[in-house]
Design goal:
2 copies of one chain form a homodimer.
Chain A (H helix, E strand, L loop, with lengths): L2 E8 L6 H17 L4 E3 L27 H13 L2 E11 L2 E9 L5 E6 L11 H4 L10 E3 L2 E5 L8 H9 L4 E6 L2 E3 L4 H22 L2 E6 L1 E5 L6 E5 L3 E3 L5 E4 L6 E8 L2 H8 L21
Parallel strand pairs in A: 1-2, 2-3, 7-8, 8-10
Antiparallel strand pairs in A: 1-15, 3-4, 4-5, 6-7, 9-12, 10-13, 11-12, 13-14
Chain lengths: 293, 293
């Protein structure tokens, strides 16, 4: 159990949901063929990133869970005997939607769900319009591939979230993501943003002594109202337990990363860097406040 | 007030306390001459890093605060009209010592003190023998150069500490440090450690949208019992508010970094990345627990 081969599926998406699902399945099969036992898809991998505009028609993209998409991906996981991390637009009720991760175990059953806790709202990322913030907390999902600390995109900027997953026994942190460049930014700004995105997540790996898997989409997507576009920056990556980059995809093309992780590093790295030993839990009062004055 | 010129003093130290203090003062004077208004010295800059062994004689290195060292550095700050961040071995009472930062304002008065909260204890860093963990919490120190979120070394691995300083209104994070390589580690391990040290602190800059200043000592120091030695790795640096490296010193030599910071970046970067807006303060319960199961 110390060796875990993982697959990261970085893809472009179109407006054709059925075609996206078929293409995802092909990539997952290919990763499984190469031995991956834990496979991760990007955020909202069944559709375009529809949050570029606020459009009530997009609520029709959401699905009940369980529903057709969980049937589809559950069967796939069972057939390939893999643990599969999917990211779906969940319709919980009329007028109540979440940005939800569903994890399937290798028998195809739903091992658990995570509802995105931190919801962004920025030009081109109007997620507060679509998604109610998650109400399931930061709880790792138990699977045959380990305790998975799965979160989603904007969560990745929050050290509190990574720490809570770590304290709850996560073996690894996993972030399906949809993040990209605004075409109006210059090259320096784009580089700073991409580097910050990787760096803050490597920081979680270091502070918690565990691997981090981050899987992003790639490709240019236009907003449905024709007013905006996002150049999704790819760069899906795996960080080791000391923050070292173990694998990293290109920015501008589909790519599947297959890499074997030594999960025993969670143990050995924390022998040398026993950060959990010394946390000042008597002095963290106020961290659950909005601001301290 | 948007422009703040800072000076980072990376130095080697000897067993001669008076010589160390004189050399520190010369470097501080030089940085002030180049326009630095906020100057930071490394951790425990009056002495060798005595924590390589557990030796009761070393308690004699500690001083009352205020005392001779605060008189010395306070006069220096007043003469140069600078804000000065110093790191002293504080004797609070017989048998009660702290690893303490004293910040002087430009009139030479003590603007505030911070007692190192997270205390390491690892081979070569036997700090739990010498220092009682701080009891002043994570409170920025108000100075004419801004609200300084000053912590010390091992604190730099804890995102909770950086966040608490941020929530309490810090304008900048500052870490006097004494960290180095164990000579038995190979080059790969040494590189991973150094890179992790820089990365986790850049992560704090990103997650909190503020600059980070980290000042380390340099040079090889032997333990007083002849049994160990640490190769202090220098690499003092300044990170920008998006985690970008603005300045970085060499590993193996004394160096003074002088750099002008644009403190208005705290404002503009947080317009684009409003992480503080979306914190799930309703869902961080348990972060002040030792472990969650």
């Amino acid at each position: 159990m110390h060796r875990l081969k993982v697959g990261l599926i970085q893809k472009k998406y179109s407006a054709d949901k059925r075609a996206n699902m078929t293409a995802n399945a092909a990539s997952v099969r290919n990763a499984a063929k190469h031995g991956a036992r834990l496979i991760v898809l990007p955020e909202l991998h069944n559709t375009l990133y529809f949050c570029q505009t606020e459009n009530t028609d997009c609520f029709d993209l959401a699905e009940k869970i369980p529903g057709p998409s969980t049937d589809f991906y559950g069967s796939l996981a069972a057939r390939l005997k893999i643990v599969l991390v999917t990211s779906l637009f969940e319709k919980r009720s009329s007028g109540l939607y979440h940005n939800t991760v569903i994890v399937f175990d290798k028998d195809g059953s739903i091992a658990g769900r995570y509802r995105k806790m931190h919801i962004p709202d920025d030009p081109g990322y109007y997620e507060k319009f679509y998604f109610t913030p998650g109400d399931l907390g930061f709880k790792p999902i138990e699977t045959s591939a380990g305790m998975l600390g799965v979160m989603v995109c904007w969560d990745q900027w929050y050290p509190e979230a990574a720490r809570l997953m770590s304290l709850a026994g996560a073996d690894i942190l996993i972030y399906p993501t949809a993040i990209g460049w605004n075409l109006r930014d210059n090259a320096d700004e784009k580089n700073r943003q991409l580097d910050a995105w990787i760096t803050v997540q490597r920081g979680h790996a270091i502070a918690n002594g565990m691997h981090v898997i981050s899987v992003n989409r790639t490709g240019l997507e236009k907003a449905s109202d024709g007013k905006g576009k996002i150049d999704f920056w790819g760069n899906s990556f795996v960080s080791g337990c000391q923050g070292e980059l173990l694998a990293r995809a290109a920015a501008d093309r589909e790519e599947t990363l297959i890499i074997e992780l030594n999960m025993h590093r969670n143990e050995t790295v924390r022998h040398s860097w026993p950060f959990l030993r010394d946390r000042r839990i008597d002095a963290y009062e106020g961290i659950d406040q909005r601001f301290r004055y």
